[in-house]
Write a structure and sequence with these properties.
Blueprint: H1 5-14, H2 25-33, E1 43-47, H3 52-65, E2 70-73, E3 85-87, E4 90-91, H4 94-112, H5 121-136, E5 141-145, E6 162-165, H6 173-176, H7 180-187, E7 197-199, H8 204-216, E8 221-223, E9 228-235, E10 239-245, E11 249-255, H9 260-278, H10 286-295, E12 303-306, E13 310-314, H11 319-332, E14 337-343, H12 350-358, E15 363-366, H13 377-382, E16 390-392, H14 396-408, E17 413-419, H15 421-433
Parallel strand pairs: 1-5, 1-6, 2-5, 6-7, 7-8, 13-17, 14-15, 14-17, 15-16
Antiparallel strand pairs: 2-3, 3-4, 9-10, 10-11, 12-13
Helix pairs in contact: 1-4, 2-4, 2-5, 3-9, 3-10, 4-5, 7-8, 11-12
Length: 434
């Protein structure tokens, strides 16, 4: 029997040996044995290549401002494992993790002996979250972030009040497919019969896939640029903008999270709340919506970890994320020399990511970190083409220290540290200790 938090994490992480096993059979088996807690929650389901975490956070803060108790299930974590299962932004306790695993572990071990095989790490954590939200907490709404894809993701055992697909990009192609259409089809797998779906996807071929799936499921679809619009966007210390739908206008919204991609994420949150309110499921005042948006932060997303010197962390871990980062640098750091430190996982499209960073970096430093799939410094260097301002340092701690010193000694300079969220998590802890 698991008795300590450390033992609980060790057992959970030990499930990583099973890798990823797409499919819902194991989750459905566990949910049935747990008396189907997933059917007892009022859920909002969020899928997409990028923007999921921020969209979850915007919705959570809006609903909190309106007085609701809001559970969230997100991944990966940045500070502590517990943050994956949170209530009103507060991670559940170590004791609750132990207590939940004491329920789920015997089921996982029993499942090992069936034709389905044992559950993966992510399936175990998802089961813990659904059991917690469905059986052990007084929660009004639960916002569930898809782990990977959608159709076969373990969170897809829920039937939500509304589904959101933030964006489609080339990531996890070994699992989701090689084309935009294939990836969109996997994401669209979260669409349930008669459940509204909201999307900011902008590729025509992806929109066609999502629209066809929504039509097949008789699900109303709300598309950014067609059914709702972003107007009067201005970038200052954050972003201000208006969202106009067919029957309501939300004027002069302010967010502190920077970038046009964050405006799109916030617009999705606004529409989700608007649709749920229109359907009589919740009540949110305009002032509560505005306050929730403005209070929203999400660590590791263009996060200013230091102002003097200016050091920014951003978990841009795929080409689309890097594109958004580069656009945000252009909008908010256009008068500064930008020095960048980059580390990524080797299964990403490294050349597409590095090429974009080269275009805006005064210096670009490659480094690596202790993670099974982390790309080596040399591998990153070999994917670079503008090598006159490229630096290498195998020790990421020294790379960070050197980078901080570099911008400390230069006027109007900024250090941007980006790449894998696992890397950003390590760097963030290191910098906060300093």
């Amino acid at each position: 029997m698991i008795q300590t938090y450390e033992d609980a994490l060790s057992w959970i992480h030990g499930r990583l040996r099973l890798g990823m096993k797409p499919g819902l059979a194991r989750m459905e088996w566990m949910m049935a044995r747990l008396n189907n807690p997933e059917k007892k929650i009022k859920a909002i389901h969020v899928a997409g290549t990028n923007g999921k975490g921020s969209t979850v956070s915007y919705i959570r803060n809006i609903l909190q401002e309106a007085g609701y108790q809001v559970g969230t299930f997100t991944s990966p974590y940045i500070e502590t494992f517990n943050e994956r299962i949170s209530v009103n932004g507060k991670p559940i306790s170590n004791d609750e993790i132990v207590s939940l695993l004491q329920v789920i572990k015997p089921l996982a071990e029993e499942l090992e002996g069936t034709e389905f095989g044992g559950p993966t790490e992510f399936e175990v954590i998802t089961a813990m979250a659904l059991y917690y939200f469905g059986e052990r907490s007084e929660i009004d709404f639960v916002i569930m972030e898809v782990g990977l894809g959608g159709r076969l993701d373990s969170t897809n055992v829920i039937t939500p009040l509304v589904s959101i697909i933030t964006s489609i990009g080339f990531d996890h192609m070994n699992i989701l497919g090689d084309t935009i259409e294939e990836i969109a089809s996997e994401k669209a797998g979260i669409i349930k019969p008669n459940v509204p779906v909201i999307t900011a996807v902008d590729q025509n071929e992806a929109i066609d896939v999502i629209s066809n799936k929504a039509k097949e499921m008789n699900s109303p679809i709300y598309q950014l640029g067609q059914d709702f619009f972003i107007l009067d966007h201005q970038s200052t210390n954050g972003e201000t903008f208006t969202v106009k739908s067919m029957n309501k206008t939300f004027q002069n919204n302010k967010i502190t999270m920077k970038g046009s991609h964050q405006v799109r994420n916030a617009s999705l949150a606004i529409m989700a709340v608007h649709i749920l309110q229109t359907n009589g499921i919740l009540q949110v005042k305009q002032s509560e919506l505005a306050a929730g948006l403005e209070k929203t932060t999400w660590i590791g997303r263009f996060e200013e970890i230091s102002k003097q010197p200016l050091v920014i962390l951003d978990g841009a871990h795929n080409p689309e994320g890097i594109k958004s980062l580069v656009e945000t640098i252009g909008a908010h750091l256009n008068k500064k020399q930008v020095h960048i430190i980059f580390s990524a996982l080797s299964d990403k499209k490294l050349d597409a990511m590095i090429g974009q960073l080269e275009a805006v970096a005064e210096t670009l430093t490659f480094t690596s970190f202790d993670f099974p799939r982390a790309a080596s410094t040399q591998e990153l260097y070999e994917n670079s083409s503008a090598q006159e301002h490229i630096l290498q340092n195998d020790d990421w701690r020294k790379a960070v220290e050197t980078g901080v010193e570099r911008v400390s000694s230069k006027k109007d300079a900024a250090l941007v540290i980006t790449g894998s969220l696992y890397f950003i998590s390590e760097v963030r802890r290191f910098l906060l200790k300093r």
